[in-house]
């Protein structure tokens, strides 16, 4: 009899422990899938689950934000979710929403008070994530809300450099109008004129080539702007560089 009681108690504690572990995982899965009914039910049973996190530190709000589940995100925020919670890699919900191009989610998070300039472990702010993904619409919204237009990644890349790199001339002009600095250089020696020398937009390329203080300056591997423009076959950029004194015999 005593043995039976011990066994029953052991099973009871196993089930209790399993339930404690399963509930957070269920909420994380429900948030990731956008299952609002499951999210509601689980939080009604235990409101503390809103702060649950997986092994990488991602919370239910991260899961909802990264997958653009607006209704789930709104419900989580209304029930105490930390809008600026950081994963183990230092990413907040806004990082994923911006990088994955979820404009409605970005709007929601900003309305609810998400911080704009948190840099994650890779040095990305939400603005840099949006620019790297080519989402100029999200980048412009973040800047209008106060994001630092001259924020830079550890390697020196800025929103403006990323915009020019992506041949997004309209966005680059927007950034310049908002105070983006043009005299920037990455850790590998890449500057805006270098990137502009290979852009398809001839007028835009010329604008940055004309800003170059030394058209014969070499990057970290010894190449000049003329090398890059010629390699791409951009004859107008080549001619503009030559007009500005580029060395045709540079090797």
UniProtKB/TrEMBL annotation:
Repeat (ANK) residue spans along the chain: 56-88, 89-121, 122-154, 155-187, 221-251
Signal peptide: 1-22
Keywords associated with the record: ANK repeat, Repeat, Signal
PROSITE patterns per the UniProt record, alphabetical: ANK_REP_REGION, ANK_REPEAT
InterPro entries, alphabetized: Ankyrin_rpt (IPR002110), Ankyrin_rpt-contain_sf (IPR036770)
Designated name of the protein: Ankyrin repeat domain-containing protein
């Amino acid at each position: 009899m005593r043995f039976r009681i011990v066994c029953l108690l052991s099973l009871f504690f196993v089930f209790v422990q399993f339930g404690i572990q399963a509930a957070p995982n269920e909420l994380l899965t429900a948030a990731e899938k956008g299952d609002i009914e499951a999210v509601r039910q689980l939080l009604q049973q235990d409101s503390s689950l809103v702060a649950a996190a997986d092994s990488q530190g991602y919370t239910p709000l991260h899961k909802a934000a990264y997958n653009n589940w607006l209704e789930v995100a709104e419900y989580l925020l209304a029930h105490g979710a930390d809008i600026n919670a950081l994963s183990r890699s230092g990413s907040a919900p806004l990082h994923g929403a911006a990088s994955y191009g979820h404009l409605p989610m970005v709007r929601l998070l900003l309305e609810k008070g998400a911080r704009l300039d948190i840099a994650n472990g890779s040095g990305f702010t939400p603005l840099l994530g949006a620019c790297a993904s080519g989402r100029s619409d999200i980048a412009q919204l973040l800047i209008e809300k106060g994001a630092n237009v001259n924020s830079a990644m550890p390697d020196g890349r800025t929103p403006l450099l990323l915009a020019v790199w992506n041949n997004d001339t309209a966005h680059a002009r927007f950034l310049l109008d908002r105070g983006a600095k043009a005299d920037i250089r990455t850790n590998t020696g890449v500057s805006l004129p270098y990137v502009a020398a290979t852009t398809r937009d001839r007028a835009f390329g010329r604008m940055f080539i004309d800003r170059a203080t030394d058209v014969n300056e070499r990057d970290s591997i010894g190449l000049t702007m003329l090398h890059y423009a010629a390699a791409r076959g951009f004859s107008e950029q080549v001619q503009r560089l030559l007009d500005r004194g580029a060395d045709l015999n540079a090797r």
